[in-house]
Amino acid sequence: MNQVNFPAVQIDADPSLSSTLPGWVYTTPEALAQEQDRIFFRTWHFAGATAALQTSGDYVTASVLGQNILVMRGRDGQLRGFYNVCQHRAHELLEGSGNARVVTCPYHAWSYHDDGSLRTARGAERQGGFVSERFCLKPVRIEVFADKFVFFNLDPDAATMASQYGDLAGEIMAETPEFDRLVPTAPRPAKPMAANWKVVLDNYHECYHCGPAHVAFSDMLDMSCYRTSINRLWSKQAGQLAKLENKAYSVAADANMQARFWWLWPTTTFGVMPGDPFLTVSSVLPLTPTTSIRHFHGFALPGSTMDPARVAYNQTVLVPEDVAICESVQRGLASRGYSAGRFVHDPDGGQTTEAAVHHFHRLYAEAMGF
Predict the structure, then answer these.
(1) For residue 180, which phi and psi values (nearest 5 degrees)?
(2) Considering all CA atoms of the chain, what is the largest pairwise distance in Å, rounded to the nearest integer?
(3) Which value, to the nearest 10 degrees, does the dihedral of the CA atoms of residues 308, 312, 318, 320 take?
(4) Which end of the chain has a smaller Cβ tally under 10 Å, C or N?
(5) pLDDT of residue 9
(6) Of 77, 81, 222, 90, which Cα lies nearest the Cα of 153?
């Protein structure tokens, strides 16, 4: 793609001195077009749970900015990723998740083995010059992260997740209650929101807004102990329960008392809230310059039932509060009365710090070549 000559963007290394990203990076098609090539097609994205890929033929599908992929367990036990597109006339091959002994295109019934090689091409094999090896499915890089999660990367030369995220997988496994026993829950429908993907992640990265905007959340956690820490390509927010009875939902005395929120550059988050063991994995992906979608995936103990009060709080209070915030910010970013803001920074990483937002902005500016 052609290089766009963007206005100068400077994110100071010191968050206490730095401006935020300017409004135009959240609103313009040119910014999204550059993000596609420089960020989304070069980084790791969540594809699904290994629990959905236990048997040969099991598959899941995922996508990022129109690039659809599938991950399948082969008869040899290996997981493989491919672009989810038939090599005949480009019809999508599989939808959702399930099991397929053979990958068969619903358009003209070309079919593929689970290693991506062409199996049948209905009549084409009888044509002179037809070479089946030219029509294998195109591979996509995949990796298993923390034993339970499959990620994909459209860059065949991308660095491994281990080299980029260090010991993060081990930390998530160690700090998530009963991690080894957790299994996927029924998926939640994803709803688009009228906010750029970066607005959603800016909001995720700080709890400075929690007091004014999330009254029940702030009543549940001890905000004097809330801390944010920064690593090379990820960040973490950690808190602990303040009281069993609070404005969000009640927590049993023998339940998990910790809150943990991890973010992996650029789009994936992991979250643990106080209460019964439950891990949320989400990914925030752009749809247009001013809209995005957040996919939520839950992991709970086998056969467990989520506390209805906790479900109601998350789905009818906390998430709607964040959606309203993000959509208001998106409208403000398009205002002629706004250019760029300023970070609030607590060097001790306390509740008011926006250090993780600053970290996200620096990584973004670096990836975009600003």
Answers:
(1) -60, -30
(2) 75
(3) 150
(4) N
(5) 86
(6) 81
Instruction: Name 342's bridge partners.
Output: 19
Q: How far apart are CA 58 and CA 65, in angstroms?
A: 24
pLDDT of residue 1: 46
Beta strands 97-99 and 58-64, pairing class? antiparallel
CA angle (113 as vertex; 104, 67 as ends), nearest 5: 65
pTM of the model: 0.95
Residue-level pLDDT at 268? 98
- In the chain, the amino acid numbered 346 is D
For 99, other C-beta atoms within 10 Å of its C-beta total 14
Q: CB-side exposure of 30: number of CA atoms within 13 Å?
A: 8
Residues in the chain with pLDDT values less than 50: 1
Please, are residues 345 and 355 in contact by the beta-carbon 8 Å criterion? yes
Q: Where are the alpha helices (DSSP H) in the chain?
A: 29-35, 161-165, 168-175, 197-204, 210-213, 215-220, 308-313, 319-333, 355-368
Provide the strand spans (E) within the chain: 45-49, 58-64, 67-73, 79-83, 97-99, 103-104, 111-112, 118-120, 139-145, 149-153, 183-184, 192-193, 227-230, 234-240, 258-264, 268-272, 278-288, 291-300
Query: What is the DSSP code (8-state) at residue 225?
Result: G
Question: What is the CATH code for 178-368?
Answer: 3.90.380.10
Domain 45-157: state its class: mainly beta
Instruction: Give residue 4's pLDDT.
Output: 64
Strand ranges across the sheet with 103-104: 103-104, 111-112, 118-120
Residue 368: what are its φ and ψ, rounded to 5°?
-80, -10
Residue type, 243: K
pLDDT value of position 189:
87
Task: Tell me the β-bridge partners of 46.
Answer: 151
Whole-number CA gyration radius for the chain: 22
Residue 7: cis peptide before it, omega within 30 degrees of 0? no
Domain range list for the chain = 45-157, 178-368
